[in-house]
Amino acid sequence: MRTSIAGTLAARSRSAGLLAAALFLHAPGAAADPLAAVDRNGSIVAVEGYGPNIVRITVAVDRALASTAPGPGITGKTDDADWKHATDASGDVFRSAALSVTVAAQPWPKAPTQMERYFAPALPPVSVAIAGADGRAITRLTGWEMSPQTVNGEQTFRVGASFADTADTHYYGLGQNQEGVLDLRGRTIDCRHYYDAPAGEQVCVPFLVTNKGYAILWDNPAATTVSAGLHNATRFQSQVGERVSFFVITGPTTDDLYAGYRRLTGTTPLPPKAAFGLIQSKARYGSQAELMSVAQGYRTRGYPLDAMVLDWFYWTRMGQIDIDRTYFPDPKGMNDQLHAMGLHSIISVWPRFERESRYFDMLAAKGWLLHDKDGKVVDGLAVRADRAGALLDSTNPQARTWFWQRIRDNILSQGFDYTWLDETEPDLVPDGAFYSIGSGDRYHNLFPLLHTSSVAEGSAADRPNFRNMILCRAAYTGTQANGCLFWSSDVQATWEALRRQVPTGLGFTASGLAYWGSDTGGWQTPAGPPAPRPVLVDPAGATAMAPDSRDYPELFVRWFEYNALTPTLRIHGQRPGTAIWEYGKAAEPILAQWLRLRYALIPYLYALGHETYDTGAPFMRALFMDFPADPQAATIGDEYMLGQALLVAPVTDQGVTSRRVYLPAGSDWYDWWSNAKLTGGQWIDAAAPIDRIPVFVRAGSIVPIGVQVPSTATRQMLEKVRVYPGRDARFTLYDDDGTSNDYRARGGKSAVLHWDEAGQRLTASGALPTGQALGGLVEIVTARK
Description:
Number of strands: 42
Largest sheet: 9 strands, antiparallel
GO molecular function, one term: hydrolase activity, hydrolyzing O-glycosyl compounds
CATH architecture of the domain at 273-609: Alpha-Beta Barrel
Helix content: 10-25%
Keywords: Glycosidase, Hydrolase, Signal
Number of helices: 16
Domain Glycoside hydrolase family 31 TIM barrel: 268-608
Strand order of the largest sheet: 4-5-6-7-8-9-15-14-11
InterPro entries: DUF5110, Gal_mutarotase_sf_dom, GH, Glyco_hydro_31_C, Glyco_hydro_31_N_dom, Glyco_hydro_31_TIM, Glyco_hydro_b, Glycosyl_Hydrolase_31
Domain Glycoside hydrolase family 31 N-terminal: 158-226
């Protein structure tokens, strides 16, 4: 069997060379020799340090492949200055200040038994134990796989690896899975981009985080299955590859794991401040007049708003990259008006090109479109009713540059601020087709990383001090560094869909990508089953849906309450109207109340965003991140922390006015609405009338509250700084101009607030970013029974 593998490798040496070139092309920061590449009877194991708590392991039967740089999305550089290599009876041992890695000695295999002749594995076995500097076991590679197969006409392998498991290990992340469960233990995840996934679009970010002080970053962009803690092991298996490559990141806290992910894959930029306000969208605004009437509607009603979105079909044809002047006669004038109102604009740009569009022939001639094995352009999907348009090959750097230049010259020149890059899975599934760098099967999950980099890099080059952001529908390892705000795609407008959003978002942010949201109210046309209980929001006057969807205003209210306390707040959907006054007389004041709460919390949220920029840690946090000693917190996926202070428990069932909430152990908690103080480590029945969801504040927290502003274009002063006593506390206030990239070099203004529990006193390290005096702002919350 080994002879078969060696022969297959030799037969495809040219393809392997192309693979190595592609890997180097997309990993500019990671070109260094490993600490060592050791031979285990023909299995070559390479070990590289990326810092004291990060190690990369590569296993192959080809020494050159074992020593090749990591794949796309990995931009961090090796850092093995403090690592030492020694050999003893146990094998090859690599040590740093934080880790020891032992590649176990493997004696020459004995002659196989009769049973082993039939069932023996094809590969020489490999075992790699990873432990803390104190010898505490962390995890262990127990086996690996390389099974010859032909994929898309290419002789290649299915590659995989198995890791040790313990019964009390829980697993999180791997991107976006909308099956409604946070803890992945005992489940098999299909880690591939898939728009049509039955529960809602799935997105693969192959970063698996545990509650045991380690995470595994799998280094392969092909479609991958991951079985987490299933049958006493955790297994990764990718459909295309010639080696096993992965990183293990360790640390005493989950934030250490995200710092490691940041080090390997890039910094999450601080979005423009407008990203923290309300983003108003609809599928779709049919004219300039309609879009402007909605923007003016917010201003005349006194409701805050930061961005208006122009979604698809504002163009004349798919792929024209133009603006239909019949319906949008003066886009530059429209944007000038929006800017004068303190608003920004976002415009959707697709990577699709109809055969009749003006750029199709040029792109096809240059080979800049997804194509089949014969070079013929792949036009449309073979499924659904979606058969219009070819896909831009964003793996080609020339195509990416061209795409940005067309967006810049044809669209952004008309005053639009930010782009929405839709269909970044891509929606045209690349399996069976080819990119410029190789098989679509080999690079199934790569497109969103490279496609969003076209605008990220183009904007950085042509608008160097303009703080960019991109609405992105999918992700891969490192995509957070492109400045993306992600969302859960075209979800249903049902209570079930809302219920699934909460664990979906927590799993996504647990994957190392902090900015996630969902279309408030769902994207699809409201068409849920009849309400099982009396509706809590009278639909009278609602124009956002058909009259028979009587509970839809209630659903929208609950969804809005939830999204107001997520990293981004965006209204979108396939409805006649989506603005907050279009859900009826009863819904409007509730929505306005929550919209104002969102804006009051912007000083808090913006400071959290800057902390994510500094550390890589997400600020919408599943409970396992902050309460590792509480076993109850390990599996809860329907409530979460927003920063270190706020515990949010969304209401996702129709007609209910209370819900069970778990208050994690190790802290007391204040009810946000009543200031009642409760002890942690217990389940409670929390009141949830239609105008509020349960929100609790951790004792020993500082929460800055801002004055109301029409948008973040108006400088927001602080109304108060709330202190919830119970322990010493720190919070770093941060502010800047909200629009430039100055924060990267010179930074904005910050002040560290410190609450001294013993002295019952709040102090600041210096002047507040707003220039206000702290004394008159402090509000110490008095607990109520």
